[in-house]
Design a protein that fits this description.
mainly alpha; globular; 2 strands; about 325 residues; two-stranded antiparallel sheet; 14 helices; disordered N terminus
Length: about 325
């Protein structure tokens, strides 16, 4: 008998897992193409290099822990694309490489690889470089602007303030709501277009690739709290600006629903989405950074297993 060393779950459909990863990559690829339209081919080059680095790190991990095919499960590509899309278009390449290595080696491999990591690797990587190099993370180029593809000289790049920067200062962003909705404002490279992200959410939900209840509960709770507790201007303008700015909608679709770090039960997923929304609201208002969603997500990742155990024990308590 030939024994194959692999990670749980031991009875699974490899085809369905591969299909789910491919759908995520397609949606992330669309967000990347949209960002390339605004900033040029520099983003495409950054994405390709990021994928190569993440796959190379996975190969190293495979050799160290002697688990087969960890570089072929496509999860590294998803991580690489999320990292590039969460960063400003003009971010230095070396910062992307550090984030890639941190996501694979520290946030995933240390815990046993895909399926064992308690925290979202991309969120951990962004949180790490935010703490270490915040001046690069929140420096957004104005839109549209063709950035140099290979040159490291970005002295001619013009930068602008994001919607969240104005909200944090207690003011209303001087951008049209349509520009905010379609991502034609200074923001992270792939997080701007609300229409595209909502379309990705519908597609991934219909295909059952993501746990849609988590995203729905998160967005509904966050929108309600933003409307009730506006930071600037009229309540509906403040709520709209909060929802369609920063990482919020992007993370709601691609990160909160990570099957490795989110609850598996329906009720647990809904509670998880509500708690995540409250955490993001609090961190946006009282945190020291312009965008603190990744920190809030990491905290909520830690309670996901507890929610599943609590929900599973409810029938027993009723007996």
């Amino acid at each position: 008998m030939k024994l194959i060393k692999t990670s749980p779950p031991f009875i699974k459909s490899g085809k369905s897992q591969s299909a789910s990863m491919k759908r995520m990559i397609v949606c992330l690829g669309l967000a990347l193409i949209y960002a390339v339209f605004f900033f040029g081919l520099r983003l495409l080059v950054n994405a390709i290099i990021s994928i190569i680095i993440c796959e190379f790190c996975e190969l190293i991990v495979s050799g160290l822990v002697r688990l087969p095919n960890t570089a072929k499960d496509l999860s590294a590509i998803v991580t690489a694309l999320i990292i590039v899309l969460l960063l400003p278009a003009a971010v230095p390449l070396w910062l992307i490489l550090i984030a890639d290595a941190f996501a694979v080696f520290i946030a995933k491999a240390v815990f046993g690889g895909l399926g064992h990591n308690p925290f979202n690797p991309s969120a951990c990587a962004i949180a790490f470089i935010t703490v270490c190099w915040p001046k690069y993370i929140f420096r957004y180029p104005t839109v549209p602007q063709m950035l140099p593809v290979f040159s490291a000289d970005l002295s001619k790049v013009t930068y602008g303030s994001s919607v969240l920067a104005y909200l944090n200062a207690g003011g209303v962003a001087p951008y049209r709501l349509s520009d905010i909705f379609f991502g034609a404002v200074p923001t992270a490279a792939g997080t701007g277009c609300g229409l595209l992200l909502l379309a990705c959410f519908i597609y991934l939900s219909v295909k059952r690739t993501i746990h849609w209840r988590i995203t729905a509960a998160f967005l509904l709770t966050f929108t309600l709290l933003s409307a009730v507790l506006p930071r600037a201007g009229l309540w509906y303008i403040s709520a709209f600006s909060e929802v369609f700015s920063g990482y919020l909608l992007f993370a709601a679709v691609f990160m909160l629903t990570d099957p490795s770090t989110s609850p598996k039960s329906d009720i647990g997923g809904i509670i998880y989405g509500v708690i995540c929304a409250i955490a993001v609201i609090l961190m946006r208002r009282y945190g020291i950074y312009e965008e603190s969603l990744c920190f809030a997500l990491i905290i909520c990742n830690a309670i996901a297993p507890t929610l599943d155990r609590w929900v599973a024990s409810i029938p027993e308590r009723r007996l």
